[in-house]
Amino acid sequence: MALCVMAVAAPENLRGTPGRYVLKSEDPVSLYNACRYAASLAADGIGSWGESNWAISRQERQRTVMLMHAFEDDLSNFETMLKQVRPNLLLIGAMSVSFPGAIACAQKAKEILGDEVCIVLGGRHASESIYLSQSGIITHHASSPLCLMANNRIAKVFDLVVSGEGECIIPWIGEVVDSLNRRRMPYSKIAEHIGNTSDVPGRWIVGWVSDVQICTTVSAGIPIDRNLLLSPSEAFGIRSSFDVFVGRLTAHVFSDMGCGCVFDCNFCSERRSVTGPPSQLGTSAIRLFRQLQCAVKVVAEDSPRYQASAFIEDSTILAGSTVALRQLTELLYEAKLDIRFGGQLTIDQINSRIEILRDLKSVGLDYLFIGIETFDPEAIGGMSKDVHSGKQPWSDRVERVINLLASLNIKCGSAILFGLGESHQNRLLLLQKLEKWLDRYGAPNPISINWAVQHPLRGDDGGTGYDYTNWSLPTDEWLEAFSDFGEASVLYPIAGQKPPVLSEVQELAELYRDLLGRSYSGTIAKKR
Known about the structure:
Blueprint: E1 5-9, H1 29-43, H2 58-62, E2 65-67, H3 71-85, E3 89-93, H4 99-113, E4 118-122, H5 124-129, E5 130-132, E6 138-140, H6 145-150, E7 160-164, H7 169-182, E8 204-210, E9 213-218, H8 232-236, E10 249-253, H9 272-275, H10 284-302, E11 308-312, H11 322-335, E12 339-344, H12 347-351, H13 354-362, E13 365-371, H14 394-407, E14 411-418, H15 424-441, E15 445-451, H16 476-481, H17 502-517
Parallel strand pairs: 1-2, 1-3, 3-4, 4-7, 10-11, 11-12, 12-13, 13-14, 14-15
Antiparallel strand pairs: 5-6, 7-8, 8-9
């Protein structure tokens, strides 16, 4: 049997379907990104991947990739896919809140397939819990899957754990799995056959547990040339359709300039000090344009009855670079693509780039997504993105943005994040203010509500030391209260903050639903 691959984005909850108003997408886009180079090798008939089950059309390839929301509710489909595909390589991607889901999925796969499958864990949780210290030493957070397996805190269900950039090491692992398969050797011994990885590009650490000993190999740090990477939509197709882009299929697109944000807000898991600075910024506009171009092509080829739209998944579009934004505008103007798109910018970026936004609107920008968090940044310890704090109060600048976008006919969605240190009264006041703005401007449409979760953050976790082995919402009562929230947790509040209070969350959830009743029902993509 040749290399046979299946990939799954692990579920955040044990049970319960997402609420009517929760952010959602049909596409596990982070998993697509990590696997896109492997998919391109398969499509081009190269190496083991060229003979694998992924050497098929992107629509068929897409059927071997699964996005799970709740383990018990999605278990039947997961088991069915395992039995149909019978992968000898199972790739699992997980954030910290979905780490228990990753463990449950791996256990089920081992139960069904036994030693016939090699299970590899990657994603944000692995990358934040296994990392290089400033002195270059491999360091493990309390939630490191390798430590937990070595100490028998969890079962040894992951044959390999990948921290960092997976695009190039995943194809390497696939080649090793295929080699073991052809020699009829057990996949449980894969670590012994990893071999020389010094020429595999990317910043990554691969680890495994031998008996109770943790073993690792580290990349040489050869940069990945992101100008050569396939677009995720070209690799796996497009399933999502966001209401804000009325009737169009919606691709997730990237400038591929880095793993996080140019800002360094202390509550954010995408902050610069954890994810690193932007890279290859000079060619980022070209990469983003090509992904937009690819979205139009994929929709035309796979779903010719539809038109294309896209959501730019950069933390802020092209890091807010005025040079890159103007370059993107010029490229879109010359190409005259039939596409509508949206993305994220900060309040201060929008207020200082009015002419650029007007030009972007003329080439397809229909939607901007803003994070409000609070009307009193000082109450939560400040925000790095609050650049113009000395010029005008945050609340006034937010209102100015909403008014501006309404005048430009750019739809505006907002993210609401609680649990940062604000009082319950301030939360209520924020929702009331959003209601007044909706009545006055028709915006912002609240699209995402979350309760802040502490992440491992490569040890910068305020000393919380969570191991993330328990489901973050422990009871059905909490699942119901948080059903319309995105990421949320009772067990893992951010450092220095108390867990949420059930009655307060219930009150906020009711007010949020009332607020959405005054808004349109659009949804955008939840990052995975």
